[in-house]
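This is your field. Pick holes in the following sequence-structure pair:
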Amino acid sequence: MNSPAVDRRAAPRPKDYKSEIKPIWCPGCGHFAVLSAVTKALAHLQLRKEDVAVVSGIGCSSRLPAYVNSYGFHGVHGRALPVASGLKAARPDLTVLVAGGDGDGFSIGGNHFLHACRRNMDMTYIVMDNRVYGMTKGQASPTTDPDWGESKMTPHGTGVRRFQPAAIALAAGATFIARGFSGEPNELTRLLVEAIRHPGFAFLHVLSPCQTFRPEQKHWKEEVHDFAQPATRDPVEAAAIIHGDDGMSAGLIYAEELPVWQPDNRVTGKLADLEQEFRV
């Protein structure tokens, strides 16, 4: 009697998703944990490297595609989401991850953030928020507290209210909203797995300390806590949770399955007819 065939192909491990390029983030940066969560999530989901694409803009966090062994695109400042949307439109079979920071995503890329939420294309947006522009040496970002005065550009603070990422995402139509903390890597990985599995636009807001320009964020380990309320699929309840929170809670906030937008890429008609329409 012949023994059954054994599949000796090893299942991919987290290290298989790491590229040969070594991260150059500062020691203690929370982004290291985000990279680890990405590779662990991809391994958990058993996704083939050629079926994954990571897109980013500009900033410390946007270096992520170089460190992941998959397709990657390092775009220009604030434009990660439109690039990722175009990729998903052309290649709906790909698992598309978008990586960015609080400056790239909520300042110059803020308008794209709004429309990516409302389109509800099937992709995952990971924003590593340290409430400072780290790569350009410590200026205030959209999520910086108004009284933070450690920057030479705003020595008396910005005096401007903080951008509220989860609230904006909910109002704009995101169908999955969660907040994670780089200091809790296992929970962050779990949230990322849920985000990737979610059919639609998944927004994962990650509290990721910058110990170089915001050394006081070392204390986030003691300040981060779980949401007091369970996750909901009701946007009204989600709004109450978000606005009643101190901004340091972690966990899934809102998840609802709504129609996913995917443009029809089928070409109809003849190429000559299409060319005729553009003749002057």
